[in-house]
Please model this.
Amino acid sequence: MNLYICYNDEMKNYLEINKKYILIFLIVCLVVFTSGFARLTYKSFRYNKAYGHDKSNDETLNFPKGFLWGTATAAYQVEGGNVYSNWWDFEQEEGRIKNGDRTDIAANHYVMYKQDVDLMNQLNMNSYRFSIEWSRIEPKQGEFDAEEIEHYRDVLNTLSAKGIKPMVTLWHHSLPYWFEDLGGWERQENITYYEEYVSYVVKNLSSEVDLWITMNEPMAYISCGYISAKWPPGEQDIWKVNRLLKNVIQAHKRGYEIIHASDQEAEVGIAEHSSYAVPYHKNNVIENIAAYSIDYIWTHYLLEQITDELDFIGLHYYYRQYINVAAVKDLFGQSLDEFESGSMDRSYYPQGLFEVLMRFEDYNKPIYITELGVPDYHEIDRDQFIREHLREVYYAIQQGIDVRGFYYWTLLDCFEWSEGYDAEFGLIDVDRSTMERTIKDESWEYAQIANCNCVSNSSD
Ligand code: BGC
Model:
């Protein structure tokens, strides 16, 4: 009715006189839209094109001298007793963690780290990636605990005595409760607390550490904490994402500068997840654009903002993720969990690691594979899983990608965030009632690989 009233003689006259300009305007809009869409389509097809590689006939595939062979852990998942973390209260809430699991003493690594370093040594590891728990170092805002620094110093000394090179992550998902209470990464003013924490740790430990990771998978933290609400603070507020992202990027940059101010020789990186998102139908435009965009938003957007403050990239790879528009119809009438576990193919796909590594070529930075792992209940044995992925790493190195190390996720069966203790990724089994450790049979091949600095190429 209103529209009808508006469309009066005056309006008619206006349209009549300006017909030409309106037409030109619409044509310009169409051209801009079409060329933007064409560019995006072209870019996404190019991006999704697989590189592929020839296979080698050599019996063994040798890795570069000095290659780092390691495993990775995160403090909150293995240490136990991290009562000042934002996860501690969160996990006490009904329904947050599968089976009602609690970290409690987790894998008791805080107490048993010496024994665990011995086990790493038995597995021929020459490096170990672990994280320092901010909520231990600074349980209350501004109160730093020197005893906790001594604990981590002792971990570093124990590693050093066995010739195991540390790679230290400063923030791996868990935050001090007080920091979250003050608004966490939502508030730009809070970056200064991270700076204080990093300065304190670096001042005390930088002489023992050459490889630093400022933060682990900030995108996973943002999406699980603020979109799916699976992790603390358990929010669903997509409008906060941009602000959070901006602040963690800023925090990374400050962390990088602080570490380098104290040690110019240190190598500082970030750990980022990259699934291999690929179109299910090779020629489907929408799937190509979606796969490209997912990878861009999830991984590359952040990395592109920090290339000047990055000595290496810590890359995580777990699976291939098919983008299938036909599956979207399943979203209706299913819960998100059902949809994720059913319709989305997150399959084991070693070649994807080669492709992902090639996608990182343009950064021209050294790469450490800081996580790659498989849980016990998977379709594939762990030894085969590791071997097949390492062959792909070898082929990427042959193509000139500077991969310098590989860290299997993870050393011990431990607390897998909202999945509780069900997902057992460890090289070592941990008896939950006695805390007794047993190296799993499937882990010994990785020990051999590390020992010879090579992987067998014979058919499996
Ligand atoms: C995280 C780990 C987690 C692993 C397995 C990684 O992305 O950094 O903390 O346990 O995935 O899900």
Observations:
- The radius of gyration is 25 Å.
- The first helix runs from residue 2 to 6.
